[in-house]
TrEMBL record:
Gene3D superfamilies attached to this UniProt entry: Zn peptidases
Cofactor binding comment, as recorded: Binds 1 zinc ion per subunit.
Catalytic activity: N-succinyl-L-glutamate + H2O = L-glutamate + succinate
Protein name from the UniProt record: Succinylglutamate desuccinylase
Binding site for Zn(2+): H59, E62, H151
Family per record: Belongs to the AspA/AstE family. Succinylglutamate desuccinylase subfamily.
Presence of the UniProt keyword Calcium in the record: no
Keyword Transmembrane belongs to the record: no
Function: Transforms N(2)-succinylglutamate into succinate and glutamate.
Pathway: Amino-acid degradation; L-arginine degradation via AST pathway; L-glutamate and succinate from L-arginine: step 5/5
EC id: 3.5.1.96
Length: 336
């Protein structure tokens, strides 16, 4: 196997390879760009026209998707998986991965779309670097641009595998991409309706890619991910990489649950209190009239939406950031 296929080992060892470029037997080119970043270029006569960015480890302790990218890279480096797409593999937060922690100083996934310029530290620098790597990768004209940013969640979820689909002015959410996600085992999609500061929001809104944050189960240490079943996703990624993706079925969205953001609960002060059990699962239902949160100066967050559910409750975020999202069912009428 080519040494550059061991990107994960190199990243965990904080090791820079001597040879930055290697070719597979079939002529695919692997190029090490910087820590945790590897570009794969297929032979020109095999190129499918797809530019596929796969990122994991944006949160350093979310190991199942990191291990998935590692498997794909090993197979490419061995010649067992023959790429026909251009690929960029990114391990998002190497220092946090080495420590086995979500982040070191700041959550990288709140630092994109320029937010990193307003702060400092290792994660701010890395967010800027990830933006440049993604922008360079997606700079080629007339290519299909697709980004999956792979995560596992802090908490359990009533819906195990789901996606967040970013929003941008003038763009419509793609029914084709939703069908592709559904075929990859994703059970629900949250359609965003405003700009955001996550990595997938950056590649979607600023680089014109179709882009998704995928939540794939609960975070566990390396080697303990047997309960996270990524078989369908892995099969779909392999097919996107080697150009063998089957056509999507006639009524592909059957059974895929769509949700829209009703409100983001923003924490304003240290007095913020979230009235939910610590171990509440994502997608838990919220009854109408429920007092969800309280904050400084008598601020009250009461659920007035019908069929509301909660995702990403986290009262420990910094003041000014979102401490939970209230979501409601959405329909497919407004898809492009
Ligand atoms: Zn994550």
């Amino acid at each position: 196997m080519l040494a550059l296929g061991k990107l994960l080992e190199m990243t965990l060892a904080d090791h820079e390879p001597a040879a930055k470029i290697q070719l597979t037997h079939e002529g695919a080119r692997l190029r090490w760009l910087t820590e945790g970043a590897l570009e794969v270029t297929p032979p020109a006569d095999a190129d499918s026209g797809l530019d596929l960015l796969l990122s994991a480890g944006i949160h350093g302790n979310e190991t199942a998707p990191i291990e998935l990218l590692d498997r794909l890279l090993h197979d490419i480096a061995r010649g067992d998986l023959k790429p026909r797409a251009r690929l960029l593999f990114l391990f998002g937060n190497p220092e946090a991965m080495r420590r086995g922690e979500r982040y070191v100083e700041q959550d990288i996934n709140r630092l994109f779309n320029g937010r990193h310029e307003q702060t400092s530290g290792t994660e701010a620098l890395r967010a800027g670097e990830l933006e440049r790597l993604a922008a360079n990768f997606f700079a080629k004209p007339e290519r299909t641009r697709l980004h999956y940013d792979l995560h596992t969640a802090i908490r359990g979820s009533k819906i195990e595998q789901f996606a967040l689909y970013p929003w941008a002015e003038g763009r419509r959410h793609s029914a084709l991409e939703l069908a592709r996600l559904h075929a990859a085992g994703i059970e629900a999609v949250l359609l965003q309706s405003k700009a955001s500061i996550t990595f997938s929001a950056y590649t979607y809104a600023s680089l014109g890619a179709e882009a998704f944050t995928l939540e794939l189960g609960k975070a566990r240490p390396f080697g303990h991910n047997q309960a996270v079943n990524l078989d369908l996703l892995e099969a779909r990624l392999r097919a996107l990489i080697d150009g063998s993706e089957p056509a999507t079925e006639p009524s592909p969205l059957d059974g895929l649950q769509l949700f829209a953001v009703a409100r983001e609960v923003i924490k304003r002060s240290d007095a913020f209190q979230l009235h939910l059990p610590k171990d509440i699962e994502n997608f838990s239902e919220l009854p109408q009239g429920y007092l969800l949160a309280e904050d400084i100066a008598g601020t009250r967050w009461v659920v007035d939406e019908q069929d509301a559910r909660i995702i990403f409750p986290n009262p420990k975020v910094q003041n000014g950031l979102r401490a939970a999202i209230i979501i409601v069912p959405a329909d497919a009428e407004r898809l492009g």
